[in-house]
Amino acid sequence: MPGTGGSMSNKRSKKSDKITVVVTEEEFNADLAAGLDEDEVLPPGRHSFQRGSFLKRQGIDSGQVALPAKVRISINLDQDIVTYFKERAARPNAAPYQTQINNTLREFMERDQMMDSETLPIPAQELLADPRFIDAVAERVLSRKAASKNG
C-alpha cells in the first residue's frame, strides 16, 4: 500500500481474503509531502480490496500468472558495485539496493535473451524507423569508406 510507513489501519478477513484500508487526511498529506504524486496514493477514506479481484475482472485464472520466485543466494561482488547500489538506494523513494541489483541483472538477461532470439529490442526498432538516424548512419558509413580509401 502507499505510504511512508504511517499508521494506516487495515483489516483482513481470513475467510474472504478481503482487506480494508483506512487512510487519514494526515497520512495522505504525509505521502504527498514525501514526494509521492496524488495518483500514487490512496485518498483519505475507507478502501476495500479483495485478493484476486483484478485477475477475475480481466478473465485471468490466477494459475496463469507465474511470478518469478525469489531465491536466497550468497554472492561475492566487488566493493565498488555494492557501494554504488547502496548509494543509489539511499536516495529518496529509491528501491532497496538488492532490488536494484536484481533489476539490473534482469534487464541484462532480457536483453541477452532478445539478442539470442534474433529479435531487435524496442529501442533498436525505433531507431531503424527514424529517418534521421538512418541518414546519420549512412553519412558515417560514407565517411568511413572515404577515410579507408584515403588512408
Describe it.
With 151 residues, this protein is mainly alpha-helical. It folds into two domains: 9-64, no CATH class; 79-147, no CATH class. The chain has six helices and three strands; from the N terminus they run E-E-H-E-H-H-H-H-H. It has helices spanning 25-33, 53-58, 79-89, 97-116, 122-128, 131-150, and strands at residues 9-13, 18-23, 45-50. The protein has a three-stranded antiparallel sheet. Strand 1 (9-13) and strand 2 form a beta hairpin. Helix 3 crosses helix 4 (97-116). It is elongated.
Question: How would a crystallographer describe the biggest sheet?
Answer: 3 strands, antiparallel
What fraction, in percent, of the residue positions are helical? 40-55%
Please write the string of helix (H) and strand (E) elements.
Answer: EEHEHHHHH
Give the overall form.
Answer: elongated
Order of neighbouring strands in the sheet with most strands: 1-2-3
The secondary structure category is mainly alpha
- Low-pLDDT runs of 5+ residues are 1-8
Characteristics:
disordered N terminus; elongated; 151 residues; 48% helix; 6 helices
Topology:
Blueprint: E1 9-13, E2 18-23, H1 25-33, E3 45-50, H2 53-58, H3 79-89, H4 97-116, H5 122-128, H6 131-150
Antiparallel strand pairs: 1-2, 2-3
Helix pairs in contact: 3-4
